[in-house]
Specification:
Length: 632
């Protein structure tokens, strides 16, 4: 079906408020560890019985009975006994959340249980022949956090602000909400983790304009975010503004990779040779213990049982640094991208905030300090800062903090396919959320009554290179000449990054819309590839986009000129008619080549031919208009 034709563009941002209904907690639902916090008079606090609050490992052990899998242990207990029950214990389930089984088959995710196809093709795991979805695992962790919060606060907890990596797309955010619902929690807001960290950071600071970089290296994800903290008074607003300028990262990069690299190093040097999943899991656990214990020592020794006997495994600081190096290097590449997107230099970054357990590694700190040319800010506890920020955001949602305002960003551009297969971007990458944009389109054929709206995400100029988010048809447009219907397409991205698209034909009032919850997520590799390609192919894409536009406009011109010529041919000088028809034939030929393969056409030459025809055709239009005036 015909795609719409582009006319004009506007983009704006909206902010809405909500009322207070009860205690709202902030939750950091981590790949490795999860925490729940609340904002009190004295500041944000992690809930739980431990002095600093409880850190709940995102690990669940299942038991299969009556055909279903039930959580037998959650958190610390499940984690401590992980290597005893490798086939029943699920850790790092967040890596699968909101993804398709097909997509995850191509990753090496390092799970100790088999991957399986869940309902509707979603990625899941198999425990003793029973399918367990990552939503279910996340729900079991959230239920435990809810229990911790209810015990601590002494009241029922039903609502939460939950954080997710900045790179989570709609499907992954939706899966997070689904998990919350399973756990009896309403996820009133989904917030990006680095933004939450900035909120926690912003709270205790003096009121001045600052640009900060949040570097978050956890167990399974890496994010870097560049943001500005703007004091309310300096912009005449009652609230401080946290404006995210850019984010970059990788949803499959973290401390887990370092643990596996350490095991790889032990195996490569012939120190161990695991043969079973249980042995492997135990070695990974030993590697992690060694890594954490190395903090201020030159080397450590860990024990693990492998091949039926106990082995002692040494890890030196040097070995650790070299195991971590390739991953640290990848984080710096993302930092470079984020700075570029924020159009910021290293010198403009006032502070670097470290988040995530893996930023405790000396080699990480050193690399970050070298890259940003300043010592990172370490006053905040990197394990807790995201949860504390989520608690602050919860208070903002609940209405008890009116002096802070949060702006977040959209990680990849959003738009629709226009006639000829070009991508018209409505909301640009790194636009703040919530965000709104609308643009006018029209039809490209006379009497066209239906228009297909194909919603896309990506940075490339051509629809075929972008990711398809969904499609719908606007039907029942009254037949009108091409270019006359006014189709307004509106994009709205809410606070949670969920996109709604609505198309209205203004003359008839006909409308259609969709809420885009794309079936599955993009991997960080895909996001990276799309970003890379958008730069590599930018010039080529733009030329092709231009040829497509030229073709679309020329086809309309040819049609109008043809109609005018048919009306007034006899009133025109025959030599002019010949000249005009020659020019038309040339442009028609270019249109046909462009329709066949836009790359085969020289855009400049096409432009010149079209312009020559534009000039030449004025005459026939003038005569045609004069003729119709004379008749009426
Ligand atoms: P996530 O946000 O993915 O849940 P966290 O921020 O809780 O992750 O970080 C967990 C990671 O931090 C794990 O890979 C863990 O091994 C690592 N980690 C925790 N403490 C230390 C430490 N002292 N040194 C190095 N790595 C650490
Ligand atoms: Mg985290």
């Amino acid at each position: 079906m015909e795609r719409p034709q582009q006319q004009s563009h506007t983009q704006s941002h909206a902010q809405s408020s909500e009322s207070t209904l009860g205690p709202i907690v902030g939750i950091d639902l981590g790949t490795t560890n999860s925490l729940v916090a609340i904002l009190t008079e004295a500041g944000p606090r992690v809930l739980g019985s431990a002095p600093q609050g409880d850190i709940v490992p995102s690990v669940v052990r299942y038991v299969v009975d009556g055909g279903g899998a039930r959580a037998e242990a959650v958190g610390r207990v499940a984690r401590a006994s992980q290597s005893l029950y490798p086939s029943r214990t699920i850790a790092s389930a967040k890596r699968l959340l909101g993804r398709s089984a097909a997509e995850t088959r191509t990753f090496s995710l390092g799970f100790s249980l088999p991957l399986a196809d869940g309902p509707r093709g979603i990625a899941a795991l198999e425990v003793d022949g029973v399918i367990v979805t990552p939503q279910q695992v996340a729900a079991d962790v959230l239920r435990e956090l809810r229990r911790v919060a209810e015990l601590d606060l002494g009241c029922a907890v039903r609502r939460a602000v939950i954080t997710v990596p900045a790179y989570f797309d709609d499907a992954q955010r939706q899966a997070t909400r689904d998990a919350a619902r399973l756990a009896g929690l309403d996820a009133v807001r989904i917030v990006n983790e680095p933004t939450a960290a900035a909120l926690a950071y912003g709270l205790g600071q003096s009121r001045r304009n600052e640009r900060i970089a949040v570097y978050d290296l956890g167990g399974g994800t890496f994010d870097v975010t560049i943001l500005d903290i703007v004091p309310g008074e300096s912009i005449g607003a009652g609230a401080d503004c946290f404006q995210v300028l850019a984010t970059a990262g990788d949803t499959a990069l973290g401390g887990d990779d370092i643990d596996r690299a350490i095991v790889g190093l032990w195996i490569a040097s012939g120190r161990v040779a695991p043969t079973t999943a249980a042995e492997r899991a135990e070695l990974v656990a030993a590697a992690e213990r060694a890594k954490v214990a190395l903090a201020d020592r030159a080397s450590v020794v860990e024990r693990a049982s492998c091949g039926g006997s106990d082995v002692e495994l040494t890890l030196t600081a040097e070995e650790l640094a070299s195991a971590a190096a390739p991953f640290v290097e990848r984080t710096l590449a993302a930092c470079r991208r984020a700075l570029q997107d924020a159009q910021s230099s290293v010198a403009e970054i006032d502070r670097v905030v470290l988040v995530g357990g893996s930023t405790r590694l000396a080699s990480v700190r050193a690399a970050v300090a070298r890259f940003f040319e300043k010592e990172p800010y370490a006053a905040l506890d990197p394990d807790r800062v995201v949860a504390l920020g989520a608690a602050v955001q919860a208070a903002i949602v609940g209405g008890s903090r009116k002096d802070l305002l949060l702006l977040d960003v959209i990680p990849l551009s959003l738009g629709i396919e226009t006639v000829g297969g070009a991508m018209a971007k409505l909301i640009m990458r790194n636009s703040p959320t919530p965000s709104k944009a609308h643009e006018h389109f029209s039809t490209s054929k006379d009497g066209q009554t239906n228009v297909r709206i194909h919603v896309l995400q990506g940075e490339r100029e051509l629809a075929q290179h972008c990711r398809s988010l969904g499609m719908f048809d606007l039907r029942g447009i009254p037949p009108m000449p091409a270019g006359i219907p006014q189709i307004d397409v509106a994009f709205t991205v809410d606070q949670n990054g969920v996109l709604s698209v609505r198309a209205v034909e203004k003359r008839s009032g006909r409308e259609a819309s969709i809420q885009v919850v794309p079936s599955y997520g993009l991997s960080a590799e895909e996001v990276e590839r799309m970003e890379r390609e958008s730069v590599e192919y930018a010039r080529d894409d733009m030329t092709v986009h231009r040829v497509i536009d030229l073709r679309v406009h020329s086809e309309l011109d040819l049609k109008w000129i043809g109609e005018a010529l048919a009306r007034v041919r006899l009133a025109l000088d025959p030599s002019y008619v010949t000249e005009l028809e020659t020019a038309m034939a040339e442009v028609r030929g270019l249109c046909e080549s462009a329709a066949h393969d836009p790359r085969s056409v020289d855009a400049n030459k096409f432009h010149q031919s079209k312009q020559a025809l534009d000039v030449l055709s004025m005459r026939v239009h003038e005569v045609s208009i004069a003729e119709s005036l004379r008749k009426s």
